[in-house]
C-alpha cells in the first residue's frame, strides 16, 4: 500500500513538475511572442519612417518643349501618361522662351538630377539642349518636331510618332556621339552643333527661307530659297586644317559636320561618321549655273566627297577666314555674318538615346504598343 502510494505520489509530483514546466514554457513563449510582436511593430514603424524619408527611387525625365512647334499642354499630358504607364515619376516639364532656346532649361533639369533630358522641338531646340548636356553623363532624348530634324534623322529616330519617340527617350540605348564646337570670332563665345555648321551659300539659304513657307511646305521651302541664291559671287577664303595644312580658294560654301544625312535621304557628307572623332569639311566651289548642275548631281549621287566642284577633307579642327562678311549657320539656324569661322570636334561628348534592337523591330513592324 505504502509502495503504491509512493508511486502515486511520485506520479503526482512528476505531473505537477511537468505542468509547472509547461506553464513556464507557455508563459515564456507568450512573453517572447509579445516581445517579437513589439519588435516587429518597431521595425515596421522604422521601415515606414525610412521609406518616407528616403522614398524608393523612380526614374525621372525632363521634357523641354518648344511651344511654337506643338501644343505644349497636350504633349506634356502624353508624356506624363507614358511615364506613369512605364513606372517613371511624373516628368519635369519646361518650355523654351524667346530668351532661352533650351540651354538654361536643360541646365535647370540637370540641377534637378533627372535621368534623361528630352528635347521636344526642332534642330535649334536640340542644339540648345545638347549644349547643356555636352560633357555630362546625362543622356538626351529627342521628340523631333521641326522642319529638318537633322540629328534625329542621322541617329535613326522615329520622326512622325510622338509616343514612340518618348518611349525611345525613356528606354532606348545610350549612344555616345561627337559634338562640334564653333566660334565666329577668334576670342568669341563657343557654340556646339550636332550635325553641321557652315558659311556661304548654305547659310544664306537658311537665313532667307520664309518661316511661313516652312510651315506650309516643310523642307521644300529650302529648295525655293536655294533657287534664288544659286547666282552669286564666290567668296575668297583661307582654310587651315588642324593648324597645319592651308589652302586658299574661291568658294560658294564651306561646311563642317559630324554627320551629313539630309531630308529625302540625301547624303551631303557621305563619308561622315557621327562617332569617329573627326569633322568632315566639304568645300563647294561652282562658278556658274552649269556647274551647279554638277554639284547637285554629285550630292544626289552620294559622291560629294570628290564630286564635280565639290571636295571634302577630314580633320579635328578647321579655321575658315574670308575677305568679306558672309552668312553663317549652326545646325541650320542662321547666326549672322562673319569673316571668321572656327570648328573643332569634341569626341564622344554627348550621350543620346537611340532605339534598341527590339525597339527597331517593333518600329519596322509598326506594332509598338502605345
Automatic annotation (TrEMBL):
Family: Belongs to the diacylglycerol/lipid kinase family.
Stored SMART domains: DAGKc
One Pfam family here: YegS_C
Biological process according to GO: phospholipid biosynthetic process
Protein name: YegS/Rv2252/BmrU family lipid kinase
Cited PANTHER family: LIPID KINASE YEGS, SPHINGOSINE KINASE
Ranges that cross the membrane: 6-29
